[in-house]
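Let us practice reading a record.
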Amino acid sequence: MNLEQLTQLANLKKIEQHPLVPIHALTPVKKFKDTTANELTKAITAYIRLTGNYAERINNTGIYDSKTGKWRKGGTRRGIADIMASKVVQHNGRSFSIMVAIEVKVGKDVMSEYQKKVQDEIIKNSAIAAKKQKEINDQQLKDKQENTQKLIESVSNSIISVTDIIATFQKAGAEKEAEAINEQITNTEKNTDKH
């Protein structure tokens, strides 16, 4: 998607958000640009949001104090990324949120040492989070396998129990049949003796 298409998408979303306002009465979205870091940051943030994801621009500049005539340090950590974003993805029927930190550079801009440290820390912790998630997934798989095995054993035991019950009924039935036959023989013998 280029910047012109992004601007068109932003205008379409604006129309969707205000269905009762005539199109001619809506102020069009300014065309997105990428000539400065500030403009490109706005475009990236808009793209992420317009595609249904979360993005927040992080204001990491100092604050000018007009009383003292000096700049005060901002409230964010030095080197923090310009944009923090997240996207929910589906994998194997589960939802995962992926966090993305975006440092915007245009032209000859380069990352500061502070920004590189933050980048390294994010990468390190993302790897740790991915490893931890794998351990959780492995444990869940192991638990499922153990539960499946227990279920198989339970069903197997139930089948054995049912088989034993059937055998007991068959044995009881055979004994009753034998008794009935013996009774018939006895009755037949009694009848024969009478004649």
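A brief commentary: The two ends are 111 Å apart (CA to CA).
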